[in-house]
Every structure is written in C-alpha cells, then in structure tokens.
Amino acid sequence: MHNPAAARARFLADAVATASPAKLLTMLYDRLVLDLSRAERAQAAGDRATANAQLQHAQDVVTELHSSLDTSGASGWAGAAGLAGLYTFLSSELVEANISGDVARTAACRGIVEPLRDAWHQAAQTVAQQSAPAAQAAPALPSQRTGATSVAAGGLLSVSA
Question: For every residue of the chain, which 3-state class applies, written as one string?
C-alpha cells in the first residue's frame, strides 16, 4: 500500500533538496505567511493550542531567515542590516502575540511579511529570467545565504506543521 502522507513528505523533501537558493527563500516566506494566517484563524476561534503551534513554527521560520541573512557586507547589499532588524522585531512580536493571544498583533506581523514575500518572489523571478539565457544555476538573492541543509533538517517547510 502506498502511504499518501509519506509520499507528500518525500516529495517536499526532494523539492527542498533540489531547490535553488532563491526558491528556498520564497518557500520559507510562503510558509511563514501560511503559519501566520493559520495562527490568526486559531486565535480568532480561541484555539490557543493551534495558535501556539503555528506561532512557534513562524518564529522558527523567522529565525532561519535571520540566520541565513548575510550581514557581513560581502554581498554588497546595504539593506541587510535593516532586514536583520526587521527579523528581530518580528521574532519579538510573534512571541508577544503568542503570549497575549492578540490576533491583531499576529495580523500586523502578516501585514509586514506579505509584501516582503511578494518582493522576494519578484526578485527570484528576475534572477531566474536573467540566469536562464546563460544556462547557469540561479544565484543566491542579495544578502541571503543558502541554508538548504538546515531548512530540510529542521522541517520548516513541512506541510503538516
């Protein structure tokens, strides 16, 4: 018998293992928005356990994004320090939203993350289009190092979390 859950998990693991750095980054942002949306719904419904699980996972994703950020200046992107500060702010807000059960705080975090997700998707698409004619692998987006091993090992992109 074929186990659909195991097949889905294997598919996701393979997708993460073979994804470009840009794709991994956008996958993390997509998952962060999903976690925040789920947490909002759970908070609104009074389901503290589900909200807690979703917000903790969102915190893990923000931690991964922050740890993969290249703030050494080697990438040449002046915005890295600002993005690091934003990740620190988001981490703090997510903890406070979880402690207080404040759906408005969670929604505000999602309101910050969604435009960033959209911008990273657009940047990844631009990088892919520029790389395609040269038949090169997609380079990392500015200021984000690749963290495929930690992402896959940490299960941050699992569909069931």
Answer: CCCHHHHHHHHHHHHHHHCCHHHHHHHHHHHHHHHHHHHHHHHHHCCHHHHHHHHHHHHHHHHHHHHCECCCCCCCCCCHHHHHHHHHHHHHHHHHHHHHCCHHHHHHHHHHHHHHHHHHHHHHHHHHHHHCCCCCCCCCCCCECCCHHHHHHHCCCCCCC
The pLDDT tens digits for 11-70 are: 667 666 767 888 899 999 999 999 999 999 999 999 999 999 999 999 999 999 999 888
Q: Map tokens 């038949």 to a residue.
A: 135
Cα angle for residues 115, 121, 77 (degrees, 5° grid): 80
pLDDT surpasses 50 at 151 = no
User: Amino acid identity of 3?
Assistant: N
Distance between CA atoms of residues 123 and 23, nearest Å: 10
Output the CA angle 8-137-153, nearest 5 degrees: 40
How many CB atoms lie under 10 A from the CB of residue 74? 10
- Calculate the alpha carbon distances from 68 to 43, 116, 130, 158 in Å: 29, 16, 23, 19
